[in-house]
C-alpha cells in the first residue's frame, strides 16, 4: 500500500505480481525462499506502478502550466 495510490491500485499490483509468478514459476531457481522471490516481484511491480503514476502526475502538472 505504500506505493499504491489507493486500494484498487494495490489490488492491481497484487494481480500483476501473481500473473508474473504464474508465468515465471519454472524459472524459480531455489536460491531463496519462495516468499522472498514473490515479495521481490511485488516490490518491482509496485515501483513500476509508482513511477508510472508519477510520470502521469508530472504530465498533468505540465499540461496545466502550459494552459
The structure class reads mainly alpha
- Cα(first) to Cα(last) distance is 33 Å
DSSP strand content: under 5%
Number of helices: 2
Order of helices and strands: HH
Mean pLDDT score: 87
The largest sheet is:
none
How many E strands? Answer: 0
Q: Would you identify the regions where 5 or more consecutive residues have pLDDT less than 50? A: none
Subunit organisation of the chains: single chain
User: In angstroms, what is the radius of gyration?
Assistant: 16 Å
Helical amount: over 70%
Task: Give the CA-based shape.
Answer: elongated
Q: Could you describe the 3D structure shown?
A:
This protein is mainly alpha-helical. It contains 2 helices and no strands.
Q: Could you give a short description of this structure?
A:
This protein has 67 residues and is an all-alpha fold. Helices cover 76% and strands 0% of the residues.
Topology readout:
Layout: H1 7-24, H2 34-66
Helix pairs in contact: 1-2
Task: Describe the structure using short key phrases.
elongated
Amino acid at each position: 500500500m505504500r506505493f499504491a495510490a489507493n486500494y484498487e491500485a494495490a489490488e492491481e499490483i497484487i494481480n500483476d505480481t501473481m500473473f508474473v509468478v504464474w508465468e515465471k514459476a519454472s524459472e524459480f531457481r531455489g536460491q531463496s525462499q519462495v516468499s522472498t522471490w514473490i515479495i521481490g516481484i511485488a516490490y518491482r511491480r509496485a515501483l513500476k506502478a509508482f513511477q508510472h503514476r508519477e510520470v502521469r502526475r508530472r504530465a498533468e502538472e505540465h499540461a496545466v502550466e502550459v494552459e
